[in-house]
Design goal:
Layout: H1 26-33, E1 36-42, E2 45-53, E3 61-66, E4 75-80, E5 83-88, E6 101-106, E7 114-115, H2 122-128, H3 131-148, E8 155-161, H4 164-171, E9 180-184, H5 191-204, H6 210-229, H7 244-249, H8 254-258, E10 265-270, H9 278-281, H10 283-290, E11 296-301, E12 309-310, E13 313-314, H11 316-329
Parallel strand pairs: 3-6, 3-8, 4-7, 8-9, 9-10, 10-11
Antiparallel strand pairs: 1-2, 2-6, 4-5, 12-13
Helix pairs in contact: 3-4, 5-6
């Protein structure tokens, strides 16, 4: 049974700068969007990250966004009708923040941060694409910025969406500087549990038979056993496919990490999530209550899809501002 699991992007994740006759340099691209490039070496990989703050300010709060799984650039330069346009491929949340905030996002390993015509190094991407590597990247980036760049920061707000959610959860158990954590459209249990849950939902909706469901779940279990037996393989059939290494690393149940965290946590789920079923996440508030933990805020957008879109209405900005207001008051 072939399984392909990828994140549906939360929004139309790009905006265009003014077109120009000459291709802009990387510095010009970053200047247009208000970011500064930094890099550090992690496990022989050069990790690039991009920091924004309002000119002339000294932020006291830092926001780190952990994006989903798609191996996409952060920025791109494209030639259109003899002119060059510049695009940003992640949400514009940083534009919604006040001057007291700094904002940072981390590029994917093997993927050009500012893409032009050069091909991405998908082999490197798959070799490094794992939960632990992304956590190590984020931990290093936070410490670098606080120690060397944004030295007056005393509040660190981390939020991860989709695949970024379990990264945020595990990061919260490691980096003690984080003060507030956002877990958005993530799954409480591993991906393969979600697949089995979706299969049973399909039976309830009468879109497949019980015998088909039985066969699918048996194949899921067999496939997971194969992944376990070859868990270090970094081979993937395409850029949007996953290696065994990636599958295995994310089989660690995110709820286990969430329960280890004592700082305030904001869990945002979507009632019509087609990638991370909401039914899986009900376990989160129930376990927090059972264990007497009171650091959880659990929010449901009943009509939202995986990217927090309701019909033609994009709810992302509204949810982000609610999250930031929550962090400011917790």
């Amino acid at each position: 049974m072939k399984i392909v699991y990828f994140t549906i992007l939360p929004l139309l994740l790009f905006s265009s700068a003014l077109a120009q006759d000459v291709a802009p340099t990387n510095d010009e691209v970053l200047k247009k969007f208000g970011f500064t490039e930094f890099f550090t070496i992690i496990e022989e990989d050069t990790t690039f990250f991009y920091y924004h703050q309002s000119p002339g300010t000294n932020p006291t709060k830092l926001v780190l966004y952990l994006q989903g799984t798609a191996p996409d650039p952060l920025f791109s330069v494209e030639k259109e009708k003899k002119k060059f346009a510049t695009y940003r491929w992640f949400p514009g949340d940083y534009k919604l923040l006040g001057e007291e905030y700094g904002y940072v996002i981390i590029a994917k390993s093997g993927i050009s941060s500012i893409q032009r015509k050069e091909p991405a190094n998908y082999k490197k991407y798959h070799q490094l694409n794992s939960l632990d590597h992304r956590v190590k990247q984020a931990d290093t980036v936070i410490n670098f910025l606080i120690d060397k760049v944004a030295k007056e920061v005393n509040r660190i707000i981390v939020y991860g969406h989709s695949e970024g959610a379990p990264v945020a959860a595990k990061l919260g158990t490691i980096n003690r500087r984080i003060t507030h954590l956002g877990f958005w459209a993530g799954n409480a249990l591993p991906d393969f549990y979600d697949f089995a849950l979706f299969t049973n939902k399909a039976v309830a909706q009468k879109s497949i038979s019980t015998s088909e469901a039985k066969k699918n779940i048996e194949e899921l279990i067999t496939e997971f056993k194969k992944i376990s037996d070859n868990r270090n393989s970094t081979v993937a059939e395409s850029k949007n496919d996953y290696s065994n290494k990636r599958w295995w690393s994310y089989s660690e149940p995110p709820i286990n990490n969430l329960l280890k965290i004592d700082i305030p946590i904001f869990v945002q789920v979507a009632g019509k999530d087609e990638s991370a079923p909401i039914e899986s996440t009900y376990l989160i508030p129930l376990e927090f209550i059972r264990l007497g933990k009171e650091n959880l805020t659990y929010e449901i957008c009943a009509e939202c899809d995986h990217g927090f879109v309701v019909g033609e209405k994009d709810m992302w900005n509204e949810i982000f501002l609610k999250f930031i207001n929550w962090a400011d008051n917790e």
